[in-house]
Amino acid sequence: MALKLDCSIITPERVLFEGQVEFAVLAAHDGEIGFLPGHSPLISELGIGEVRLMDQSETDYYVIEGGIVDVRDNTVTVLAENAHKKSDLDAEGLRLKLDDLGRKDAELPSLSKESMLLKIEQQKLKARLKVALR
Fold first, then answer.
1. How far apart are CA 118 and CA 102, in angstroms?
2. What is the pTM for the complete model shown?
3. Cβ(98)–Cβ(118) under 8 Å?
């Protein structure tokens, strides 16, 4: 029997995932980070990006948008500011929103507060689109 990790993805609104996985990959603030059973204790800041939860031949995909991860005793707890399941994402709708934000961004001064906030929103939409297209 393969060792497993107890894994949870929790947002302020809901529990997105609770179960056991063999391997978890998350978007940390500075790149991807992966966890196998027996991982040493860790607390890390999360970034905007993809989550892959793997079990045998199946992989589930999610998007996280900030938060923290706590790993200890074969338990991975993701406390995300915002997160989405792949099944909740609409690729075509995300493409339209990205196009719209691109047009708006072209009209703003490059270093304005509004432009910077728009770029963060574009980053979130691109991460969602990546997962939606999986």
1. 9
2. 0.88
3. no
**pLDDT, tens digit, for every residue of 67-92?**
999 999 999 999 999 999 999 999 99
- Measure Cα distances from 3 to 22, 51, 71, 125 in Å: 7, 20, 15, 34
The amino acid sitting at 23 is F
- Contact predicate 28/10, CB 8 Å: no
Query: What's the mean pLDDT in 52-79?
Result: 96
In sequence order, the 6+-apart residues with CB closer than 8 A to the CB of 119 are 105
Distance between CA 6 and CA 57 in Å, rounded?
Answer: 18
Residues in the chain: 134
